[in-house]
Amino acid sequence: xxxxxxxxxxxxxxxxxxxxxxxKMTGLRARPDEAFVEKLDRFSFKGYAVAAETTGKLEGxxxxxxxxxxxxxxxxxxxxxxxGVTGEEDxxxxxLEEALSEWCNTxxxxxxxxxxxxxxxxxxxxxxxxxxxxxxxxxxxxxxEIISVPxxxxxxxxxxxxxxxxxxxxxxxxxxxQHEKVxxxxxxxxxxxxxxxxxxxxxxENVVEASDGEEAIRVxxxxxxxxxxMDVVMPKMxxxxxxxxxxxxxxxxxIVMLSSVADQELIGECERHGISGYIxxxxxxxxxxxxxxxxxxxxxxxxxxxxxxxxxxxxxxE
Length: 318
What we know:
The protein is of the alpha/beta class and 318 residues long. It has 2 domains: 164 residues, 3-Layer(aba) Sandwich (Chemotaxis protein chec), CATH 3.40.1550; 125 residues, Response regulator (Rossmann fold, 3-Layer(aba) Sandwich). 41% of the residues lie in helices and 23% in strands. It contains 10 helices and 13 strands. Strands 1, 2, 3, 4, 5, 6, 7 and 8 form an 8-stranded antiparallel beta sheet that branches. A 5-stranded parallel beta sheet has the order 10-9-11-12-13, with helices on both faces. Strand 11, helix 8 and strand 12 form a beta-alpha-beta unit.
């Protein structure tokens, strides 16, 4: 399961319950579009939103995010359905806000109960409304990534679900500072160059290299890196053997193994020596930075990494 897939898994109950409640309370039918990672500098407040904050394994905020005109239209229809009122408001009045609250609170309540059964280690705070840019800006503080899912309402309009991902206190404590050294180990010069490029895009330029397991041990002892990304299949000494020897030195440094071979016996051997992850190659310019960022940000509690990663994305919350 990739990071993106995990976040979508969290959004899915919100989307399902919201779309279901929308049809029951207004007769409108809606469908979700493809999820995408939204750039922080392009994210903007649409005018009206419901926020449900998450804590625990994953800190952030789930938003049911509307354009004002869409919120007004839905509010009018909910009010008509509940009260039989025929008149329509052209802005969000107290009555419309109550109607929207009924719809949103119903959806969020059902979704959070469904997620509680998933044992993802995530807790939800009571939902509340975001009515202005200042409130939204406060929520954006500390956000590192935004997953967005457009919801299209047939012949009506659209709204969005956003998951604003923040770095948890646990992750901040484990995160690798951009000033600390990163050791990359691979016998292929091109691979080392690509890994350095991915690290540079993330702000990590204090990078040292090794081209085989024997050199990795020497460089590790000399440079004392904060984290290691190491290939498994290399000449002179394999990565798994170098890992064993580094651990024999008393090292607790996070070490992430990279390999094009998803050999379960080999993965098990590496896990016994203590690794933070096992990434299946190839890494690409599109996926590499995201994968490496997962470990650099301190998410080092994924012993099952590599066993479910056919798409080269990393991190799995238990």
